[in-house]
Amino acid sequence: MAREMKDSGIEWIGEIPKEWKLVPIKYIASYNDETLSENTNSEYEFDYIEIGSVEYGKGVTQVEHMKYKNAPSRARRIVKKNDIIVSTVRTYLRAVAIIQDSANMQIASTGFVVIRAKKINYEYLRYAILSESFICMVEAYSTGISYPAINARVVVGFKIPFPKNQQQKKIAHFLNAQCTELDDILEKTRASIEEYKKLKQAVITQVVTKGVRGNREMKDSQSIWFGQIPSDWEMRKIKYIFKIQKDIAGEEGHTVLSITQKGIKPKDLSKNEGQLAENYSNYQLVHIGDFAMNHMDLLTGWVDISKYEGVTSPDYRVFELIDKDNYCSQYYLYLMQMCYTNRIFYGLGQGVSGLGRWRLQADKFLNFSITVPSYEEQQEIANYLDKKCSAIDELIAKKEQYLSEIENYKKTLIYEYVTGKKEVPQNC
After folding, report:
1. Which residues pair with 248 in a beta bridge?
2. Is the terminal CB of the chain with fewer CB neighbours within 10 Å at N or C?
3. CB neighbours (10 Å) of residue 337?
């Protein structure tokens, strides 16, 4: 028999069981209880958790061990096992996690609100905060365009469904079992996707540097990056193959292009995501067929051929083939992308990698020698890789679709049980 429900009065929660309450978090949990003192010993060591350390659905994925004297000023929130951290800045990232046990003291950024369960089962509270309904509230009540944020007092003022303690435990126990099983599937699927990506990169590396014409005479390329290459290939500096161009738009109205690891994409300015500029007239022009690369960040940056007319950041590098009749752009796109994934450009860079500022200077780029097969073989290689990579990408897409379906099912599962729309089976 279905239990009687009532309207919660909150759009994102919907109906809840009639006997359940709605309670603001601040009445059943404390927040931001402990802060690292400014008088802390400069040699004090801890693991630092910043916003980028947390992924929705995965929790804390990385920490940075540091001493207090080297820590950023925002490294202040003391966290303990079973605390729940919710990002109050860049809230579209959905950075929410429960703190696990650790051998080291853990300190979170002041960009988090740290919630500590008091009059509620901490595991049930975790699922209530992880639920889609709660995350939607955090995003909806955030203010700001390029850097949306929410006050910690607002977050802990949100109401959550509050069943009796025994029901909280029962729901948490059920969701623990279900989510552990789903997380195992997600982990294996992600690992499978990574294996396919490694396979794709291995194929690209082999073919770009060795060709597709089977066993043949080889020679030393005189490059630590390319090793042995076919004897009829040449090595040539980039400056003899490409030219850098920088034409400033001088006016607004152009399509703004972002360089992402999925390629060059038009930026949707209405979403207010990522870095936004006050004025795009000082951006540089990008034409269809131009190469464009983010040489400012050689770890997460990328290079692609533009399919669009538009503008991109003046800090990026736009370049084109000097002789398009004797050089195949698709071959050199595979080669340039290989230089990112195999950390070749990274090896040529300089800067402060720990701060994400590891750059490839123009002179290093232009004087770097790359492979030059005959034009006919460049086309052969590009055509081969187009087909091979397309087949691997199709397999990856299927895995990613499955991954998305499981993640959405997990979100729905949590939402339905923490709002009481589904009841835990009697045999659980």
Report:
1. 284
2. N
3. 19
